[in-house]
Design brief:
Elements: H1 3-8, H2 16-49, H3 51-65, H4 74-87, H5 91-121, H6 123-126, H7 134-163, H8 167-190, H9 195-220, H10 233-267, H11 270-290, H12 293-306, H13 310-337, H14 339-347, H15 354-370, H16 372-380, H17 384-409, H18 411-437, H19 442-467, H20 475-497, H21 500-513
Helix pairs in contact: 2-3, 2-8, 3-7, 3-10, 3-11, 4-5, 4-7, 4-10, 5-7, 5-10, 7-9, 8-9, 10-11, 10-17, 10-18, 11-13, 11-15, 12-13, 12-16, 13-15, 13-16, 13-19, 13-20, 15-18, 16-17, 16-18, 17-18, 19-20
């Protein structure tokens, strides 16, 4: 491709390694920014709003999280088709895809807000609310739904940026938006305003951010034309053939991992929702931080499956599982071993009920991330139907168990209702199926992909068990303890769990990421 063509399609004239490094580094910057702000802002919000009002806010957000199901998987398919037609250098087809999906997303956004109006009308019948909470709940729900609907309509522009491999633009904008939103959050509450004003102010910032995403889309793709006149039914059929499978997987994931707050709100109360939210927020943070690798592995799986490179698929599966576990095990171990002082230091002893829930949800995250490479392999190597059916079955079991256990066991019953189906589906079904897909024995997969990353976590857990009684319930002290435990895990993993070839390869890749010149080639384990 010439430089003129690259400019027309927004392809940066630079090395692919630079692009990957920039996208990954800014992704972690966005995650770190959001995580740091969340750690600081959540206890501030609980203190100024009160447990009940904060729980009401969480409940409204949980309801609107399900509205994304209405996009029927088109959001998940968007980046694929942007990248596909960009690679084919077909700007006309690309604009037809984008215009068609924009029309679809506008219709979906309207449907989302209509659904929000329906829920708001009967919110006092669906959830256990105090009489003085009903009107506030309706307003908060409708304002939060406005942000969700607007984000859906504008998602075409974010998809253009990602499909053109400029994730860094979205990541930087997201980081700045998070910082501005946090500043507005603090200012509104310090000024003495309540929940409604807070939600309206934060939503205004987020909606304005959508216009920045739109401007960046036109920047990376100068030939972008999003017009209703470019809507094509044949393009809609083309995208739908893929998106329907993404929709099933997305529905199952939402049902499996977002339904718990709704079950608690329907059976218990908003204070219980707040207690659950503390544990869930920490567990979700660990999952998000530790599960970045598998997004990168997906195209490699597709490419090697297309070329029938079984040996490469085997190495991707083994190394991806090992690295995923090596990321999540130390983080999950820290949550499990230091759950009580962490919760007390973050939000106070009145949230002691979050401790056991956090420990159970941390175990769920370890299993999910540890099996993520297997799921990525199945989806990318033609077994996506198995993943969608299994995810849906897991989700339905989660709902049934949570409803059955919430009354006798409270929040712990809901947590167990999540843990049992996830472990069963991952350990007994998906992981063995992934082994079979790449023609590996289960014993070899466990010995080479799982155990090398798990056993250093046992040493880290023993260390944390010895020192946790001496660590004060302060975030700085707990962070230092987690870092010490993580360094112990990393040292054991690097020295004893990796082969010499693997160790040389990964050190070489880190050196490249930091901009150092590689002295000699390293044999790739993947």
């Amino acid at each position: 491709m010439s430089r003129d063509e690259a400019s027309l399609l927004g392809r940066p004239a630079e090395d692919d390694g630079v692009v990957v490094a920039r996208n990954l580094s800014t992704r972690y910057l966005a995650i770190a920014t959001e995580a740091a702000l969340g750690v600081l802002i959540l206890p501030f919000n609980v203190e100024h709003l009160g447990t009940s009002a904060y729980g009401l806010w969480v409940l409204a957000a949980s309801v609107t999280a399900y509205f994304s199901l209405l996009d029927l998987g088109y959001s998940g398919a968007l980046v694929k088709f942007v990248a596909q037609y960009r690679a084919r250098r077909d700007a006309q087809a690309l604009n037809e895809i984008l215009s068609t999906l924009f029309c679809v997303f506008v219709v979906v956004a309207v449907a989302m807000y209509a659904a929000a109006l329906g829920v708001a009308a009967y919110v006092d019948r669906v959830f256990h609310l105090a009489p003085d909470q009903t009107q506030t709940a309706r307003v908060v729900l409708l304002v939060v739904a406005l942000n969700v609907s607007a984000s859906t309509a504008f998602s075409v522009f974010g998809g253009v940026i990602n499909g053109f491999q400029r994730y860094d633009l979205n990541n930087v904008v997201g980081s700045v938006s998070s910082a501005v939103t946090a500043a507005v959050n603090v200012a509104v509450l310090l000024a003495g305003y309540g929940l409604v004003t807070l939600v309206v102010s934060m939503t205004a910032v987020r909606v304005l951010t959508l216009w920045v995403y739109r401007a960046n889309a036109y920047r990376v793709f100068p030939g972008l034309r999003v017009r209703p006149s470019l809507f094509r039914r044949e393009r809609l059929r083309e995208v739908t053939g893929f998106s329907v499978h993404m929709a099933v997987i997305d529905w199952a994931n939402k049902l499996n991992y977002s339904v718990d707050a709704l079950v608690i709100g329907a059976v218990m109360n908003t204070s219980a929702v707040a207690v659950w939210a503390i544990a869930q927020r920490l567990a979700e943070l660990v999952q998000r931080v530790s599960n970045q690798l598998n997004d990168i592995l997906f195209p490699a799986v597709v490419e090697n499956d297309t070329a029938a490179r079984l040996d490469r698929l085997q190495r991707i599966f083994l190394q991806g599982t090992k690295l995923s576990l090596a990321t999540v095990v130390p983080l999950g171990c820290a949550l499990i071993m230091l759950a009580r002082p962490l919760v007390f230091a973050w939000v106070g002893p009145e949230f002691e009920g979050s401790v056991l829930i956090l420990q159970v949800l941390a175990a769920v995250v370890i299993v999910r991330v540890g099996n993520a490479t297997g799921m990525t392999l199945l989806k990318g190597a033609g077994s996506h139907r198995i993943v969608s059916v299994t995810n849906m079955g897991t989700a339905l079991c989660n709902v049934a168990l949570s409803l059955a256990l919430v009354r006798p066991f409270g929040l712990l019953g809901v947590a167990l209702g999540t843990l049992v189906p996830v472990v069963t589906a991952s350990v007994l079904l998906l992981f063995p199926l992934a082994c079979r897909r790449v023609e590996l024995t289960l014993g070899r997969a466990v010995a080479e992909g799982v155990w090398p990353s798990v056993w250093p976590g046992l040493a880290m857990a023993a260390f944390l068990a010895l020192v946790r009684g001496m660590v004060p319930a302060q975030l700085v002290a707990l962070a230092a303890t987690c870092i010490a435990g993580g360094l112990l895990y990393a040292a054991i993993f690097l020295l004893f769990s990796l082969t010499a070839v693997e160790r040389r390869f990964y050190i070489d890749k880190v050196a490249q990421l930091l901009g150092f010149t590689r002295l000699k080639p390293a044999e790739e384990p993947l």
